[in-house]
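not sure who needs this but someone in the group chat was asking about DUF2634 domain-containing protein from Paenibacillus azoreducens so here u go. i didnt clean anything up, its just raw.
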Amino acid sequence: MANLFPDTPDMVWTDEPVAEELESGGAVFGRSWRFDFDKGEFVMSPTRKMAVADDKEAWVIWCEKAIRTPRYRHLIYSRDYGSELEDLIGGTSRALQESEIRRMVTETLLADARTQSVDQFVFAWEGETCRFSCRITNIRDEIETLESVVI
């Protein structure tokens, strides 16, 4: 019977970190699938295969999904994943709500080792709805702007 775990010369078994982990300060930037948050579905190629996201795009998708996912609601996620934005109570001052949005978003995104900083928040109010954007920087000093809404 063939060995279930073959040991061939091209296979390297080691407990040492992969070179990519060392270069990025211990965080692994991996590939992921592209996701269209407006449609709520994965992006498909013309041949109906899921489109692959590069390292930076995969990190940005993770950040956006983490902000949109309510913390503690889904057992599949750890207690460190997701945000508590839906728990913001209306009736408090806008300044307090903006402060809480800053805190919650920063806490949510810094849970990922790839995220270096979250800053430059901009808020726009439409009635009780708050639209905000912020600048995120990863440990490779790549910068992106995230936008979201709190109702």
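also The first strand starts at residue 32 and ends at 33. if thats useful
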